[in-house]
Amino acid sequence: MKRLMTAILTLTLFLAFSSFAMAAVYNMTVYADQATGVIGVNGDYPLAQTSGSSWSADNSAYKAEWGLDASTLFGRTVTLSDVVGMSYWTKKPTSHVEQAPDWYFHFYTTPFENSPGSAWYGYRLNTEPYFSANLNENVNEWNQWAIGGQNDTNALRFFDSSSSNYWGSYTDPLWEEFLTQTGLGDRVYGDQELLSIAMATGSGWNADFYGLLDGLSISVKNIDITGAPIVDTYNINFEAAAVPTPEPSSFLLLLAGLGGFGFMLHRRNKA
Question: Which residues of 156-170 are buried (b: 16+ CB within 10 A; e: fewer)?
Fold first, then answer.
């Protein structure tokens, strides 16, 4: 009996500590009115977990753009080397060979002395779908773009646009290689703290560009309370608009109406 109790206790402790090492998944929904130059597109989305709608550029602004502070998203300090995954989905009626423009992604890092970009950020790191390694897309269907390796489909390439007018090429490094490189001031990119993230369309292209965006996901390294390594995933769903919640007065009117309806049925039954 004593051995059985010891085994049960050991198993209980193992399961308890194992649960701490499980990866955490956080889900966030943002709406079109929280971005610039964006409209919602109902009924078109890539995944069940992003069902409802997606975003499109509204073709009126200088560019469509949305951003979020890293502290708001992660709730802690994250360096670029902590980022082990990032992906998002787009859909457009032409291939990237026919027309290059699409939604692109920014990592902004925290500013430092003599930052190359500006006073409010250090580096601005870009990635564009049409530069992806092993490009393989379906026209007018949802395609996923992601951090990946040499053998992965649609693996995003990264470049630093903060210090020049350099806007990328088909030979830029993939994520793991990019992290080991240095920017101005000999600062290794992987060591830089993440300030914010952003999705956008190209400046000056918004009036002619039509393409949908949804399902951004970022995975970052973390440790649990036992010190074991884990990976947390942050999923961001782009939706048209929040479903309005009825005001309390609306509930009261609804209940009153239902009560009256019930009363009339009761009287009819008695008659």
Answer: bbbbbbbeeeeebee
Report pLDDT digits (tens) over 164-191: 778 899 999 999 999 999 998 889 999 9
Q: Following DSSP, what letter does each residue of 86-116 receive, concatenated?
A: EEEEEE-SS-TTT-----EEEEEE---TT-S
Report residue 114 CA to chain centroid gap: 30
Shortest CA distance to 112 belongs to which of 162, 65, 68, 71? 162
Question: How many Å apart are CA 110 and CA 123, to the nearest integer?
Answer: 8
44-62 pLDDT per residue, tens: 999 999 999 999 988 877 7
Closest C-alpha to 233, from 243, 250, 242, 221? 221
Better pLDDT: 141 or 19: 141
Contacts 24+ apart (CB under 8 A), 201-204: 201/37, 201/57, 201/63, 201/64, 201/65, 201/101, 201/102, 201/103, 201/104, 202/63, 202/101, 202/104, 203/62, 203/63, 204/62, 204/63
The pLDDT confidence band at residue 203, using thresholds 50, 70 and 90, is confident
Contact 136, 153 (CB under 8 A): yes
As a whole number, mean pLDDT of residues 140-147 equals 98
Strand spans (E) along the chain:
25-31, 38-42, 53-57, 65-69, 83-91, 104-109, 124-127, 143-146, 159-160, 194-200, 212-223, 229-239
